[in-house]
Structure prediction request, 684 residues.
Amino acid sequence: MNTPFKTMALAGICGMAAAAAQAADDSRIAMIPGGPHPYFAAWEQAGADAVRDFGIEAADYKVPQKWELTQQNQLLESLLSQGYNGFMIFPGDPVGAVSTAEELAENGAQVIAGAGCFKDPSPAAFCLGTDTGNSAYLGTKELLAAMGDGEKRIAHFTGFLVDPNTQLRIDAVNKAAEEAGATVVQVIADIDAPEPAEEKINAYLAAHADEVDGIITTAWVPAVVAANALRKMGDTGIHMVGIDHDEVVLTAIKDGVIDGTMLQNPYGQGYIGTFALDKLRSGCTVKDDAPFASNALTDKFIDSGTSYVDASTVDSYIDAMRAESDRILKDFEATYLTCN
Amino acid sequence: MSAQDTPSAPSPNSSTGDGRQTWLRFFLSNEFGLILLIAAFIVIFAVSTRGFLSPFNLFSLGRNSAVNIMIGLSMMTVIVTGGLNLAVGAMGVCAAMAFGWLIEVLGLPWPIALLGGLGMGAALGFINGWTVVRTGLHSFIITLATMSIFFGVMIFLTRAESYRAIPDVFSALGKMKIATYLSPLLLVTLACALALTWLYRFTVTGREMLAAGASPAAAELSGIRVGRIIILCHMLSGVLAGMAALMLVARNGAAIPSMAGQLGQDWLLPAFLGPVLGGTLLQGGKVSVLGTVLGAFLVTMLSSGLLMLQIGAFWVQTFLGLMLLIAVLLDKARRSYLTRRNLA
Prediction:
């Protein structure tokens, strides 16, 4: 956990200390991503902070050894057998993970989805994550604005094809491009891992850099690799908007190598998710008329926030995400839960 | 039980000397070693973890074992011929997606879709086997290529979308509990294992498979159509991979393109661990169905126990890889010992 996130956590949670008195004293929360990925690293510190601030017995970040639904299922089964009773899950598959979530719920555990959603119907109380389609749409709009007038040919580097979010992102980028009269000349997917990202992005830019005016990336690793590639290539005139807050991406923004990045809020997801699970365990229920949003997977969606950061705001990006977390947490209980 | 080189329990009618040798051979067999290991690890995990013997954990252990054993059996049926099937995961996923498509798009009843899914597995196995026979290339190369082809075509056709309209009666099989801790999927797998034991021990076709694997040239000379047998083994592998995938469909309530990981590669380690730990020879010609069952069960139990011990999840994979290496080395030492004692 890096210092900015600690600062963000401390600054954003002081007002929540009183809630500790109302915590369920036997809540053992597990936060489970779909597999190893740097995006989720902030969940670990978020859980530790939530334990401290809300008086929860445990909030542990457990990572399946591989990005595989079966591995995630086995880990969840094992954690349930070990006595964990609250789960924030990034579904290894939005459909296939529902069955395991149902088993967890049948055994008395509370379940929510974090960072990615289960497909309805599911036993998850709600889904707390980034509106991926909207984030990709807004990022593309920012890219198009940065490109100015003239021809706009965009390359889109994105995540795994088996992740349904990938198709949402592809559609959103295409929609934003179409609206602005731009052309998506290339979509390279299945590259949210270092080796394929390095191989495919570098090969593509080596052969087609002069045929591209802008790059949008909608997955963590492609953003890092593309930013590095543009830095090595020097002044190509290619604009780029990335995603997430990897140090490579943030430095590239500061140095003017790329234009900006679309931030997500993994720390806020972990912290707010742990708080919510503990509340559900202590007897709170989700309001029937809770103002959930909808996305392609669920009608119980809570946007954990996304914001665009460019060179003028990159030094204060922590503030932007802190504001998002504060905004959600401040009214969370009153807005979404009924607690006696 | 293993065929051709069978470590059987001693017969009551055997003479004292023969009986002692048979007992010795049984104690030195992979199967006996695996039984001891399983018993030892059950005790270790039961004592040192919280909830290992809980009904839910026993249920999930049985359910996960059912799939891993079936994957191991699928690989075993090709190893028998001295070949490999790297496409086992891709074939399984294709069978599962065909099953989902037949139900959701064509609206067929699930029993017919089930046959369709298994038929898809057999058809893909036929493609593998036919290509191996016609080209003369090792199945390692052919199935490495078809793994990408099968998976790529499946992703293209389905656009990576899952099929979720699986009938409740089928999905219920994945959640059903017999006496609170036993999964019916495990019974299905054990029934398949028994059928394979019968195939290799009591049928001409099974014996021909073993003979073709032990020495293709000798088998050909003795009238066995080796090419046909190899195709048959690959088809059998496809059907069993389809069975494993359909059990996962029942477990997940959906047919999911990513159920075996990228390109189906996530099935490869369990596919090899079961047969190799169980004593099936990679050179072909010898098979141990019981050993594969025990080997795959041991691996599943170790994964479960290590997770319960909260050993870092990344160490589990390392541990399983080490087990595979140690198993191969121990088997080599065992065979050397048997040869020296004229017990082989």
Notes: The domain at 132-263 of chain A is CATH 3.40.50.2300 (Rossmann fold). The interface with chain B takes residues 36, 62-71, 73-75, 77-78, 80-83, 92-100, 102-103, 107, 119, 160-162, 164, 166-167, 190 of chain A (CB under 8 Å). Confidence is low (pLDDT under 50) at residues 5-21 of chain A. DSSP finds twelve helices and 14 strands in chain A.
